[in-house]
Write a structure and sequence with these properties.
The structure holds two protein chains of two kinds.
Chain A: E1 13-19, E2 22-29, E3 37-43, H1 48-60, E4 64-70, H2 76-91, E5 100-105, H3 107-115, E6 123-127, H4 131-140, E7 147-152, H5 161-169, E8 175-180, H6 194-212, H7 221-231
Parallel strand pairs in A: 3-4, 3-5, 5-6, 6-7, 7-8
Antiparallel strand pairs in A: 1-2, 2-4
Helix pairs in contact in A: 2-3, 3-4, 4-5
Chain B: E1 17-20, E2 25-29, H1 36-47, E3 52-56, E4 65-71, E5 74-80, E6 86-90, E7 105-107, E8 110-112, E9 119-121, E10 126-128, E11 149-153, E12 156-160, H2 168-172, H3 175-183, E13 191-192, E14 197-201, H4 205-212, H5 218-221, H6 223-231, H7 238-241, E15 244-250, E16 253-258, H8 272-289, H9 291-297, E17 301-305, E18 309-314, E19 317-327, E20 330-339, H10 345-359, H11 366-379, E21 388-390, H12 406-420
Helix pairs in contact in B: 1-12, 8-9
The complex binds FE2/S2 (inorganic) cluster (FES) and fe (ii) ion.
Residues 211, 217, 221-222, 365, 369 of chain B line the site of fe (ii) ion.
Chain lengths: 244, 451
């Protein structure tokens, strides 16, 4: 008996988003029903459809919609503006910041950390960010939303890990810095060597867990009704479209 | 001894505490250590009624940090919610009972029950129910259950399952002052170090309560520890060990209390630099709280807050110990170390060393205590042949010493009142001398000019 199940792949939809005075290619996957939350992805690949398709599909397995864009070639300020634009875009999908998990690779990871300063995000993750940049951001704007950083031990500035770790420990929000032994900055691109494969596998598990326990779920129509009843003791009319 | 009165009326409780003021003699019946019925009554009449320690606020540093703990046999989630408030929840899903949280500790804003997937936040609210349309639109969504009361005193968080329990400060009575003596040892607030000691003892839980402020056993049981201290070059002035008193702090709480300076009496020697730092720290406390209070702070303290919280300030380490009965002959113990976070590295290193060598489950003292208690418990198999343990030491003295047994008698009298409805009068003693009564003053810190 063959138990291998191949889940159908969803091809992310390409689009263009104007943010911070420039146009950015984006990729999105929307879901029906009541999705668990939304993930905003900042990838290093110039083409977000190519660069984000795999994690976007993996997030679908956990009920997350997603919107991705590329940070390739963007300076810090442009990254911040892109993040603002993407978050703005998902509000039109009806997601509030606490229902968003912001996941960035490389400089996308530092941009995610920077966005944590306001404290309204559900959760953020940085995969292989440069620790020198992380240190700079953590010094300037201590994170108020939970941020998870994951780096390879052989990346150029991993020597800063201890210092960055204690800096982050002093922040108001819960943060974690994971250093994968024996791997370089590309550990998240799964490869045959055992340590890289293990790091890539563990890294993705952590991303999903980090989001699952922190991103606010969207209330179902019935949950919203119940919420309303908590605030008004009297009878509440059935909102439009609520199943009976 | 019979449990039934003649004529078949309601069964009389056997006598567990023999508090004879004329002899004077105080004895405890060993059935109290072996009977399932006694443990059931303890759960009912003590653990379900009074305030119980769950943990320290500093163990939950960040919003959404949590620890799972067992208090009074109940699995609880001890958490800090998103807004930073301390919360305690019953770790059981209101759906059909699975534990919401199966980890010892972590950080999570949402906890999802793995059985059917209901999700709750750290404020106890049910935030999602898979396939909720099947429940209908009027379904009342149950949140997590909580103990009747949660309150804290200077970072020590207590819960009570009794809706009618008195206020925590009233409950703590004079024991609150002893917590102050510990908590005042840090300008920024004492913190619990990460990590716990967890061990079990094949003995009745009350034996460890007794042991925790038993000054009488120190030299005999812990002979090996004292030999180690002597070998490390410390000249122990044995007469100072006697500089201590036993005090009844009300509501069953009691302490054995050493005179000024006895807190550092034993333990491996500190380095010159560590001694200097420690002295400087205490000098600054003197300018803030006054000499008399700080003299008391420097004394050793073994405190038991009824029924099962132990706070010991001795050998340069403050241990917080929580004792949980599991069966009449089996208890679980959890212990933490409380430290002043501003202490320098060297002082901290030596503090940790002293803490581990004395208090650790593999240290030079705790295993001796465990062995003593386990032999007691084994011997209680013969409780019919030898029914009573004697706890009379110091009963006739004008002042009870720390090596006397007033502390245990205080505890047992409260125990007997709660478990068996037998009231006992307080034991008369002279008030402790001035050295043990200094009050905390609120003085302006004196500006010291650096030389
Ligand atoms: S028992 Fe928790 S969801 Fe069913
Ligand atoms: Fe002992």
């Amino acid at each position: 008996m063959d138990l291998d199940v191949t889940l159908p792949r969803i091809e992310p939809a390409p689009a263009v988003l104007a943010a911070g005075g420039r146009e950015h290619a984006t990729a999105s996957i929307r879901l029906g029903g009541v999705p668990r939350g939304v993930a905003v992805l900042l990838v290093e690949d110039h083409d977000p459809v190519r660069g984000a398709s795999e994690p976007m599909n993996a997030l679908v397995e956990h009920g997350f919609e997603s919107l991705a864009a590329s940070v390739a070639g963007l300076e810090a300020l442009a990254c911040d503006r892109l993040v603002a634009g993407l978050l703005e875009e998902v509000t039109t999908w009806d997601w509030s910041p606490e229902q968003v998990g912001l996941v960035g690779w490389g400089r996308g990871g530092t941009a995610a950390l920077h966005r944590c300063a306001t404290g309204d995000l559900g959760a953020a993750v940085g995969i292989s960010p440069a620790l020198a940049d992380v240190r700079e951001i953590a010094c300037a704007d201590a994170p108020r939303s939970p941020w998870l950083g994951m780096v390879g031990e052989l990346a150029p500035d991993t020597g800063l890990a201890e210092e960055v770790g204690s800096l982050l420990d002093g922040a108001p929000a819960f943060t974690q810095l994971v250093v994968y032994p024996g791997v370089g900055p590309d550990f998240h691109r799964d490869a045959a060597p055992a340590l890289v494969h293990a790091a890539a596998f563990d890294c993705w598990q952590r991303v999903v867990e980090w989001l699952n326990v922190r991103v606010s779920p969207r209330p179902t129509p019935y949950a919203e009704l119940w919420e309303l009843r908590q605030h008004h003791s009297s009878d509440v009319p059935t909102p439009e479209g609520t199943p009976r | 001894m019979t449990d039934t009165l003649p004529g078949g009326s309601a069964p009389a409780r056997p006598q567990y505490v023999d508090d004879d003021r004329d002899a004077p003699r105080f004895r405890v019946n060993r059935r109290a250590m072996v009977d399932d019925d006694v443990l059931a009554r303890e759960r009912d009449r003590i653990f379900d009624k009074v305030w119980l320690y769950i943990g320290h606020e500093t163990e939950l540093a960040k919003p959404n940090d949590f620890k799972t703990r067992t208090v009074a046999g109940r699995p609880l989630i001890f958490a800090r919610d998103k807004a930073g408030q301390i919360q305690v929840w019953v770790n059981s899903c209101p759906h059909r009972g699975a534990m919401i949280c199966r980890e010892k500790e972590g950080n999570a804003r949402f906890m999802t029950c793995f059985y059917h997937g209901w999700s709750f936040n750290t404020s106890g609210k049910l935030v999602s129910v898979p396939g909720d349309t099947s429940y209908g639109r009027d379904f009342e969504r149950p949140g997590l259950a909580a103990p009747a009361h949660v309150d804290s005193y200077r970072g020590f968080v207590f819960v009570s399952f009794n809706p009618d329990v008195e206020d925590l400060v009233d409950y703590l009575a004079e024991a609150a002052e002893f917590l102050d003596l510990v908590c005042d040892q840090s300008e920024s607030g004492m913190r619990v170090l990460e990590g716990t000691h967890e061990y079990s003892v094949k003995a009745n839980w009350k034996l460890l309560v007794e042991n925790s402020y038993d000054g009488y056993h120190a030299v005999s049981t812990h002979q090996r520890y004292f030999e180690m201290v002597a070998a490390s070059g410390v000249e122990l002035d044995a007469t100072r060990l006697g500089d201590s008193i036993g005090v009844d702090l009300g509501n069953g709480h009691a302490a054995s209390v050493g005179g000024p300076g006895t807190g550092g009496l034993f333990g491996r020697p500190l380095s010159e630099a560590a001694i200097a730092e420690k002295e400087a720290r205490f000098a600054s406390f003197r300018t803030r709280f006054g000499e008399a209070w700080v003299d008391r702070m420097t004394g050793a303290r073994n405190l038991v807050i009824f029924p099962n919280l132990v706070v010991i300030d001795l050998v340069m380490g403050v241990v917080i110990r929580k004792i949980d009965p599991v069966r009449p002959d089996y208890m679980e113990v959890t212990a933490w170390e409380l430290v002043p976070p501003e202490e320098g590295d060297e002082l901290k290193r030596q503090r940790l060393d002293n803490f581990l060598t004395f208090w650790g489950p593999g240290g030079l003292a705790s295993p001796d205590d465990v062995e003593a208690l386990e032999t007691c418990q084994r011997s209680f198999a013969a409780h019919r042949e030898l029914s009573w343990s004697d706890v009379s030491r110091g009963m006739s003295s004008p002042v009870a010493l720390g090596s006397d047994e007033l502390q245990m008698r205080t505890w047992w009298r409260r125990w007997d009142a709660l478990v068996n409805d037998v009231e006992h009068a307080d034991e008369p003693h002279d008030p402790p001398s001035e050295r043990f009564r200094g009050r905390r003053l609120e003085l302006e810190p004196v500006e010291t000019t650096s030389s």
